[in-house]
TrEMBL record:
<feature type="transmembrane region" description="Helical">
    <location>
        <begin position="45"/>
        <end position="71"/>
    </location>
</feature>
<feature type="transmembrane region" description="Helical">
    <location>
        <begin position="12"/>
        <end position="33"/>
    </location>
</feature>
<keyword id="KW-1133">Transmembrane helix</keyword>
<keyword id="KW-0472">Membrane</keyword>
<keyword id="KW-0812">Transmembrane</keyword>
<protein>
    <submittedName>
        <fullName>Uncharacterized protein</fullName>
    </submittedName>
</protein>
<feature type="transmembrane region" description="Helical">
    <location>
        <begin position="78"/>
        <end position="96"/>
    </location>
</feature>
<feature type="transmembrane region" description="Helical">
    <location>
        <begin position="108"/>
        <end position="131"/>
    </location>
</feature>
Amino acid sequence: MKYQKILGEDAAAIVLSLSVVAYVASLFLTAIVDSHEVLPGGGVLLLGWLGPLAGSFAWFANPLLIFAMYFSKEKPSAAMLAVFFGFALALTTFGIKTIPSDNGDATVLGFGAGCYLWLACFPAVFIASFLSSRKSRALAPGK
């Protein structure tokens, strides 16, 4: 297998570890810039569950991503499915035009590195799950 030559024996674990580090880093970086303030990823994670009140469901990609991270090795097919739907939900982030706040609605001006790093976690976890599924098939008896 070519990927084993490039990344070593456990390529899936390396990719998954990098995605976990990227997810944690995204919490400390700017996620959204609006007309009132700069929101770090951690703040968006804490308050994002209120998104449906503003018509945004992107926050709900987080539980799917965490599920996929946790099960990427044991149940790679379920993890790939969860991360696929999670990524679709996460992409709805770009549909957010205003954010309700105490001072009235704030207009979204742009997205920061934290947002893009968070989004990059989805394909990374998909790749880790895919590599795990290939490894488990290669180790399966009778193959």
